[in-house]
Design brief:
Number of helices: 3
Order of helices and strands: HHH
Shape: flat
Helix content: over 70%
CATH architecture: Up-down Bundle
Number of domains: 1
Structural class: mainly alpha
Distance between the termini: 39 Å
CATH topology: Four Helix Bundle (Hemerythrin (Met), subunit A)
């Protein structure tokens, strides 16, 4: 039961942050929303039991965005 609630919570935050990535006028805000979207996607991978994919997503994509 709690897993389903967490899934829908992370999915809703992911959709909201993905929408804000596209609609934000400030590029810095857009990048911060993109990082939030990546972390929520990693949380969804963790809920699905794919811990390796979640960590790779955080390390590679969030690390690359932080470098840029």
């Amino acid at each position: 039961m709690i897993t389903a609630i967490l899934f829908y919570l992370f999915a809703a935050i992911l959709l909201g942050s993905a929408t804000m990535v596209v609609s934000a006028r400030n590029p810095v805000h857009s990048v911060l929303f993109l990082i939030l979207a990546f972390f929520n996607a990693a949380a969804l991978f963790l809920i699905a039991g794919a811990e390796f994919l979640a960590m790779i997503l955080v390390i590679v994509y969030v690390g690359a965005v932080a470098v840029l």
